[in-house]
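Lab manual, section 2.4: Encoding a predicted structure.

Procedure: take the sequence of the chain (376 residues), apply the prediction step described in section 2.3, and record the output as C-alpha coordinates. A sample record is shown.
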Amino acid sequence: MKKWGDHWSVWACAGFLGIASACHANEGTKSPSPKPSLTVTVTSPQTSSWVQKINANGNLAAWQEAIIGAEANGLQITEVRVNVGDRVQRGDVLAVLQADTLRAELAQAEASLAEATANAQEAKAQSERARSLQQQGYFSNAQLSQTLSADASAQARVQSARAMVQLQTVRLAQTTVRAPDAGVISARQATVGSVVGAGTELFRLIRQGRIEWRAEVTAAEMGRIQVGAPVHIKAASGQVLQGKVRMLAPSVDAQTRNALVYVDLPAQTGSARSGMYAQGEIVLGQSQALSLPQGAVVVRDGFSYVYTVGADQKVSQIKVQTGRQIGDRVEVTSGLKADARVVASGGAFLNQGDTVRVVDAMPAAAPAPAEKPASK
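Recorded output:
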Protein backbone atom coordinates (compact mmCIF):
# COMPACT_ATOMS: atom_id res chain seq x y z
CA MET A 1 0.00 0.00 0.00
CA LYS A 2 2.81 2.40 0.70
CA LYS A 3 4.30 1.65 -2.70
CA TRP A 4 0.95 2.42 -4.49
CA GLY A 5 0.67 5.62 -2.56
CA ASP A 6 4.11 6.65 -3.64
CA HIS A 7 3.23 6.09 -7.30
CA TRP A 8 -0.02 8.07 -6.97
CA SER A 9 1.90 10.94 -5.44
CA VAL A 10 4.33 10.97 -8.35
CA TRP A 11 1.49 10.93 -10.95
CA ALA A 12 -0.40 13.67 -9.15
CA CYS A 13 2.66 15.87 -8.97
CA ALA A 14 3.34 15.27 -12.67
CA GLY A 15 -0.28 16.16 -13.48
CA PHE A 16 -0.19 19.32 -11.47
CA LEU A 17 3.11 20.28 -13.00
CA GLY A 18 1.66 19.77 -16.52
CA ILE A 19 -1.33 21.94 -15.76
CA ALA A 20 0.89 24.60 -14.27
CA SER A 21 3.15 24.49 -17.31
CA ALA A 22 0.15 24.84 -19.58
CA CYS A 23 -1.10 27.81 -17.56
CA HIS A 24 2.28 29.44 -17.71
CA ALA A 25 2.41 28.82 -21.46
CA ASN A 26 -1.05 30.41 -21.96
CA GLU A 27 -0.05 33.44 -19.95
CA GLY A 28 2.99 34.02 -22.16
CA THR A 29 0.96 33.81 -25.47
CA LYS A 30 -0.48 37.13 -26.82
CA SER A 31 -3.48 37.53 -29.25
CA PRO A 32 -2.35 38.41 -32.80
CA SER A 33 -2.84 42.09 -33.90
CA PRO A 34 -5.67 42.72 -36.47
CA LYS A 35 -4.57 42.61 -40.07
CA PRO A 36 -4.85 45.95 -41.97
CA SER A 37 -7.79 45.88 -44.39
CA LEU A 38 -6.27 48.43 -46.79
CA THR A 39 -3.08 50.32 -47.47
CA VAL A 40 -3.84 54.05 -47.81
CA THR A 41 -2.23 57.44 -48.07
CA VAL A 42 -3.48 60.32 -45.98
CA THR A 43 -3.89 64.01 -46.71
CA SER A 44 -4.82 67.11 -44.76
CA PRO A 45 -7.42 69.73 -45.70
CA GLN A 46 -6.00 72.80 -47.42
CA THR A 47 -7.18 76.35 -46.78
CA SER A 48 -6.98 78.64 -49.82
CA SER A 49 -8.77 81.59 -51.41
CA TRP A 50 -11.48 80.49 -53.83
CA VAL A 51 -13.68 82.49 -56.15
CA GLN A 52 -17.31 82.64 -55.07
CA LYS A 53 -19.66 82.25 -57.99
CA ILE A 54 -23.20 81.26 -58.88
CA ASN A 55 -23.88 78.98 -61.83
CA ALA A 56 -26.97 79.94 -63.81
CA ASN A 57 -28.75 79.21 -67.07
CA GLY A 58 -30.75 81.50 -69.30
CA ASN A 59 -31.41 82.82 -72.78
CA LEU A 60 -29.75 85.52 -74.85
CA ALA A 61 -32.23 88.22 -75.85
CA ALA A 62 -32.28 91.61 -77.50
CA TRP A 63 -31.52 94.45 -75.10
CA GLN A 64 -34.40 96.42 -76.64
CA GLU A 65 -36.31 95.49 -79.78
CA ALA A 66 -38.05 98.30 -81.67
CA ILE A 67 -41.13 97.52 -83.78
CA ILE A 68 -41.21 99.67 -86.92
CA GLY A 69 -44.66 99.96 -88.48
CA ALA A 70 -46.50 101.89 -91.19
CA GLU A 71 -48.02 105.22 -90.16
CA ALA A 72 -49.80 105.95 -93.44
CA ASN A 73 -53.00 104.03 -94.18
CA GLY A 74 -53.91 102.15 -97.35
CA LEU A 75 -50.67 102.75 -99.26
CA GLN A 76 -48.71 100.27 -101.35
CA ILE A 77 -45.06 99.40 -100.63
CA THR A 78 -43.00 100.29 -103.68
CA GLU A 79 -39.48 99.62 -102.37
CA VAL A 80 -37.79 97.66 -99.54
CA ARG A 81 -34.16 98.58 -98.97
CA VAL A 82 -33.07 96.33 -96.07
CA ASN A 83 -33.17 92.68 -95.13
CA VAL A 84 -32.82 90.64 -91.95
CA GLY A 85 -29.35 90.97 -90.45
CA ASP A 86 -28.55 94.33 -92.03
CA ARG A 87 -27.01 96.98 -89.80
CA VAL A 88 -28.62 100.40 -90.13
CA GLN A 89 -28.05 103.87 -88.73
CA ARG A 90 -30.59 106.22 -87.24
CA GLY A 91 -32.62 107.84 -90.05
CA ASP A 92 -31.74 105.31 -92.77
CA VAL A 93 -34.56 104.59 -95.24
CA LEU A 94 -35.92 101.08 -94.76
CA ALA A 95 -38.92 101.12 -97.13
CA VAL A 96 -40.81 103.50 -99.43
CA LEU A 97 -44.60 103.68 -99.87
CA GLN A 98 -46.52 104.98 -102.87
CA ALA A 99 -46.83 108.76 -102.48
CA ASP A 100 -48.59 110.02 -105.66
CA THR A 101 -51.95 110.57 -103.97
CA LEU A 102 -50.41 112.34 -101.00
CA ARG A 103 -48.39 114.62 -103.26
CA ALA A 104 -51.59 115.66 -105.03
CA GLU A 105 -53.34 116.26 -101.72
CA LEU A 106 -50.40 118.37 -100.57
CA ALA A 107 -50.55 120.44 -103.73
CA GLN A 108 -54.27 121.00 -103.19
CA ALA A 109 -53.67 122.07 -99.61
CA GLU A 110 -51.00 124.52 -100.73
CA ALA A 111 -53.42 126.02 -103.30
CA SER A 112 -56.06 126.42 -100.61
CA LEU A 113 -53.51 128.18 -98.45
CA ALA A 114 -52.64 130.57 -101.26
CA GLU A 115 -56.32 131.36 -101.83
CA ALA A 116 -56.96 131.89 -98.15
CA THR A 117 -53.91 134.16 -97.90
CA ALA A 118 -55.16 136.34 -100.81
CA ASN A 119 -58.63 136.62 -99.28
CA ALA A 120 -57.09 137.52 -95.93
CA GLN A 121 -55.06 140.30 -97.49
CA GLU A 122 -58.19 141.72 -99.17
CA ALA A 123 -60.15 141.53 -95.92
CA LYS A 124 -57.38 143.29 -94.07
CA ALA A 125 -57.26 146.12 -96.62
CA GLN A 126 -61.04 146.58 -96.34
CA SER A 127 -60.86 146.72 -92.56
CA GLU A 128 -58.22 149.44 -92.74
CA ARG A 129 -60.36 151.50 -95.15
CA ALA A 130 -63.37 151.02 -92.91
CA ARG A 131 -61.48 152.42 -89.92
CA SER A 132 -60.49 155.49 -91.94
CA LEU A 133 -64.04 156.10 -93.19
CA GLN A 134 -65.50 155.53 -89.72
CA GLN A 135 -63.23 158.24 -88.34
CA GLN A 136 -64.49 160.61 -91.06
CA GLY A 137 -68.08 159.74 -90.16
CA TYR A 138 -68.94 157.80 -93.33
CA PHE A 139 -69.10 154.38 -91.61
CA SER A 140 -71.21 153.45 -88.65
CA ASN A 141 -69.93 151.38 -85.80
CA ALA A 142 -71.97 148.41 -86.96
CA GLN A 143 -70.47 148.49 -90.42
CA LEU A 144 -66.94 148.74 -88.96
CA SER A 145 -67.63 145.77 -86.71
CA GLN A 146 -68.77 143.64 -89.67
CA THR A 147 -65.61 144.55 -91.63
CA LEU A 148 -63.33 143.69 -88.75
CA SER A 149 -65.14 140.38 -88.24
CA ALA A 150 -64.67 139.48 -91.90
CA ASP A 151 -60.96 140.26 -91.57
CA ALA A 152 -60.60 137.99 -88.52
CA SER A 153 -62.44 135.14 -90.32
CA ALA A 154 -60.11 135.47 -93.29
CA GLN A 155 -57.05 135.23 -91.04
CA ALA A 156 -58.48 132.11 -89.36
CA ARG A 157 -59.02 130.47 -92.75
CA VAL A 158 -55.36 131.13 -93.52
CA GLN A 159 -54.29 129.37 -90.33
CA SER A 160 -56.57 126.42 -91.14
CA ALA A 161 -55.16 126.14 -94.65
CA ARG A 162 -51.61 126.32 -93.30
CA ALA A 163 -52.38 123.52 -90.82
CA MET A 164 -53.73 121.41 -93.67
CA VAL A 165 -50.51 121.92 -95.58
CA GLN A 166 -48.51 120.80 -92.55
CA LEU A 167 -50.72 117.72 -92.16
CA GLN A 168 -50.27 116.71 -95.78
CA THR A 169 -46.52 117.29 -95.49
CA VAL A 170 -46.36 114.95 -92.52
CA ARG A 171 -48.42 112.31 -94.33
CA LEU A 172 -46.13 112.56 -97.32
CA ALA A 173 -43.06 112.12 -95.07
CA GLN A 174 -44.67 108.98 -93.63
CA THR A 175 -44.38 107.29 -97.01
CA THR A 176 -40.65 106.95 -96.25
CA VAL A 177 -40.11 104.43 -93.41
CA ARG A 178 -36.92 105.29 -91.52
CA ALA A 179 -34.92 103.60 -88.76
CA PRO A 180 -35.67 105.17 -85.36
CA ASP A 181 -32.23 104.14 -84.02
CA ALA A 182 -29.02 102.40 -85.05
CA GLY A 183 -29.08 98.63 -84.82
CA VAL A 184 -29.64 95.32 -86.59
CA ILE A 185 -32.78 94.30 -88.47
CA SER A 186 -34.04 91.17 -86.72
CA ALA A 187 -37.31 90.62 -88.63
CA ARG A 188 -38.94 91.82 -91.84
CA GLN A 189 -42.58 91.54 -92.88
CA ALA A 190 -42.53 94.24 -95.57
CA THR A 191 -42.87 92.99 -99.15
CA VAL A 192 -43.00 95.03 -102.35
CA GLY A 193 -46.53 95.40 -103.70
CA SER A 194 -48.42 94.81 -100.48
CA VAL A 195 -50.90 97.43 -99.27
CA VAL A 196 -50.43 98.22 -95.60
CA GLY A 197 -52.63 99.89 -93.05
CA ALA A 198 -51.70 102.25 -90.27
CA GLY A 199 -49.92 100.33 -87.50
CA THR A 200 -48.94 97.35 -89.64
CA GLU A 201 -45.58 95.92 -88.48
CA LEU A 202 -42.94 96.10 -91.20
CA PHE A 203 -39.61 95.53 -89.40
CA ARG A 204 -38.08 94.70 -86.03
CA LEU A 205 -34.85 96.33 -84.97
CA ILE A 206 -32.42 95.28 -82.22
CA ARG A 207 -31.49 98.68 -80.90
CA GLN A 208 -27.76 99.43 -81.13
CA GLY A 209 -27.21 95.76 -81.95
CA ARG A 210 -27.00 94.97 -78.23
CA ILE A 211 -28.05 91.66 -76.75
CA GLU A 212 -28.19 90.65 -73.10
CA TRP A 213 -28.20 87.45 -71.06
CA ARG A 214 -31.26 86.85 -68.90
CA ALA A 215 -30.11 84.41 -66.24
CA GLU A 216 -32.51 82.57 -63.94
CA VAL A 217 -31.46 82.36 -60.28
CA THR A 218 -33.25 81.35 -57.10
CA ALA A 219 -34.60 83.88 -54.65
CA ALA A 220 -31.88 82.92 -52.14
CA GLU A 221 -29.11 83.47 -54.69
CA MET A 222 -30.57 86.78 -55.80
CA GLY A 223 -29.71 88.41 -52.48
CA ARG A 224 -25.99 87.66 -52.99
CA ILE A 225 -25.71 89.26 -56.44
CA GLN A 226 -24.62 92.88 -56.81
CA VAL A 227 -25.13 95.19 -59.78
CA GLY A 228 -21.87 95.42 -61.73
CA ALA A 229 -20.67 91.90 -60.82
CA PRO A 230 -18.58 90.29 -63.62
CA VAL A 231 -20.15 87.38 -65.48
CA HIS A 232 -18.57 84.65 -67.64
CA ILE A 233 -20.96 83.25 -70.26
CA LYS A 234 -20.76 80.42 -72.77
CA ALA A 235 -23.40 80.44 -75.51
CA ALA A 236 -24.75 77.34 -77.24
CA SER A 237 -22.66 78.26 -80.28
CA GLY A 238 -19.48 77.93 -78.19
CA GLN A 239 -18.84 81.67 -78.04
CA VAL A 240 -17.40 82.79 -74.67
CA LEU A 241 -18.50 86.25 -73.54
CA GLN A 242 -17.68 88.52 -70.64
CA GLY A 243 -20.46 90.70 -69.24
CA LYS A 244 -21.64 92.64 -66.21
CA VAL A 245 -24.84 92.53 -64.20
CA ARG A 246 -26.97 95.52 -65.24
CA MET A 247 -30.00 95.00 -63.05
CA LEU A 248 -31.97 92.49 -61.01
CA ALA A 249 -35.62 91.79 -61.74
CA PRO A 250 -37.96 93.65 -59.36
CA SER A 251 -40.10 90.53 -58.83
CA VAL A 252 -39.86 86.74 -58.57
CA ASP A 253 -41.87 84.40 -60.78
CA ALA A 254 -44.75 83.00 -58.73
CA GLN A 255 -44.65 79.63 -60.52
CA THR A 256 -40.94 78.81 -60.61
CA ARG A 257 -39.83 80.99 -57.65
CA ASN A 258 -36.91 82.11 -59.81
CA ALA A 259 -35.85 85.65 -60.67
CA LEU A 260 -34.13 87.12 -63.72
CA VAL A 261 -30.71 88.76 -63.70
CA TYR A 262 -30.08 91.04 -66.69
CA VAL A 263 -26.46 90.92 -67.87
CA ASP A 264 -25.04 93.41 -70.39
CA LEU A 265 -22.87 91.91 -73.13
CA PRO A 266 -20.32 93.59 -75.42
CA ALA A 267 -21.47 95.04 -78.75
CA GLN A 268 -19.55 92.40 -80.73
CA THR A 269 -20.87 88.98 -79.70
CA GLY A 270 -19.41 86.86 -82.50
CA SER A 271 -21.53 83.79 -83.18
CA ALA A 272 -23.84 84.38 -80.21
CA ARG A 273 -27.35 85.33 -81.30
CA SER A 274 -30.55 86.48 -79.65
CA GLY A 275 -32.68 83.51 -78.62
CA MET A 276 -29.74 81.18 -77.91
CA TYR A 277 -29.46 79.20 -74.69
CA ALA A 278 -26.38 80.02 -72.59
CA GLN A 279 -24.73 78.94 -69.36
CA GLY A 280 -22.79 81.30 -67.16
CA GLU A 281 -21.09 82.05 -63.87
CA ILE A 282 -21.82 85.17 -61.85
CA VAL A 283 -18.73 86.07 -59.83
CA LEU A 284 -19.44 87.19 -56.26
CA GLY A 285 -15.88 87.66 -54.95
CA GLN A 286 -13.18 85.75 -53.05
CA SER A 287 -13.52 83.66 -49.88
CA GLN A 288 -11.45 81.22 -47.81
CA ALA A 289 -12.25 77.55 -48.47
CA LEU A 290 -11.25 74.28 -46.76
CA SER A 291 -10.79 71.70 -49.50
CA LEU A 292 -9.90 68.05 -50.06
CA PRO A 293 -9.08 65.98 -53.13
CA GLN A 294 -12.21 64.77 -54.82
CA GLY A 295 -11.24 61.12 -54.20
CA ALA A 296 -11.23 61.69 -50.44
CA VAL A 297 -14.98 62.34 -50.35
CA VAL A 298 -17.24 59.29 -50.46
CA VAL A 299 -20.94 59.64 -51.30
CA ARG A 300 -23.24 57.09 -49.69
CA ASP A 301 -27.04 57.18 -49.55
CA GLY A 302 -27.03 60.77 -50.77
CA PHE A 303 -24.62 62.02 -48.07
CA SER A 304 -20.93 62.88 -48.20
CA TYR A 305 -18.40 61.21 -45.89
CA VAL A 306 -14.65 61.23 -45.29
CA TYR A 307 -12.51 58.75 -43.37
CA THR A 308 -9.99 60.03 -40.84
CA VAL A 309 -7.11 57.96 -39.48
CA GLY A 310 -6.42 57.94 -35.71
CA ALA A 311 -3.23 57.20 -33.80
CA ASP A 312 -4.23 53.52 -33.58
CA GLN A 313 -4.40 53.31 -37.41
CA LYS A 314 -8.16 52.85 -37.27
CA VAL A 315 -10.48 54.92 -39.45
CA SER A 316 -13.51 56.91 -38.40
CA GLN A 317 -16.34 57.75 -40.78
CA ILE A 318 -17.29 61.45 -40.58
CA LYS A 319 -20.26 63.06 -42.31
CA VAL A 320 -19.40 66.37 -43.98
CA GLN A 321 -21.09 69.09 -46.01
CA THR A 322 -19.54 69.91 -49.38
CA GLY A 323 -19.72 73.08 -51.45
CA ARG A 324 -17.86 74.35 -54.48
CA GLN A 325 -15.66 72.24 -56.72
CA ILE A 326 -12.65 73.57 -58.59
CA GLY A 327 -10.67 71.12 -60.66
CA ASP A 328 -10.10 67.94 -58.64
CA ARG A 329 -10.68 69.56 -55.24
CA VAL A 330 -13.94 69.81 -53.29
CA GLU A 331 -14.78 72.40 -50.66
CA VAL A 332 -15.78 71.07 -47.23
CA THR A 333 -18.04 73.57 -45.52
CA SER A 334 -18.66 71.77 -42.23
CA GLY A 335 -17.97 68.59 -40.26
CA LEU A 336 -14.18 68.42 -40.61
CA LYS A 337 -11.29 69.84 -38.57
CA ALA A 338 -8.46 71.60 -40.34
CA ASP A 339 -5.80 69.30 -38.83
CA ALA A 340 -7.54 65.99 -39.57
CA ARG A 341 -5.68 63.11 -41.27
CA VAL A 342 -7.99 62.07 -44.09
CA VAL A 343 -7.76 58.99 -46.29
CA ALA A 344 -6.87 60.42 -49.70
CA SER A 345 -8.44 57.66 -51.81
CA GLY A 346 -10.05 54.27 -51.47
CA GLY A 347 -12.55 55.34 -48.83
CA ALA A 348 -15.31 53.52 -50.69
CA PHE A 349 -13.76 50.21 -49.54
CA LEU A 350 -13.59 51.18 -45.85
CA ASN A 351 -16.03 50.99 -42.96
CA GLN A 352 -16.13 52.49 -39.50
CA GLY A 353 -13.35 51.08 -37.30
CA ASP A 354 -11.33 49.37 -40.04
CA THR A 355 -7.58 49.16 -39.50
CA VAL A 356 -5.41 50.53 -42.28
CA ARG A 357 -1.74 50.74 -43.06
CA VAL A 358 -0.60 54.28 -43.83
CA VAL A 359 2.13 54.79 -46.40
CA ASP A 360 3.67 57.92 -47.82
CA ALA A 361 2.36 59.26 -51.09
CA MET A 362 4.22 58.12 -54.17
CA PRO A 363 6.79 60.73 -55.19
CA ALA A 364 6.74 62.11 -58.68
CA ALA A 365 8.82 60.01 -61.07
CA ALA A 366 12.26 61.47 -61.71
CA PRO A 367 13.21 62.05 -65.31
CA ALA A 368 15.29 59.28 -66.83
CA PRO A 369 19.00 60.13 -67.20
CA ALA A 370 20.19 60.97 -70.66
CA GLU A 371 21.64 58.03 -72.49
CA LYS A 372 25.42 58.20 -72.86
CA PRO A 373 26.92 57.56 -76.29
CA ALA A 374 28.54 54.19 -76.69
CA SER A 375 32.31 54.17 -76.31
CA LYS A 376 34.30 53.32 -79.38
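Check your result against the sample. The CA atoms of residues 100 and 172 lie 9 Å apart.
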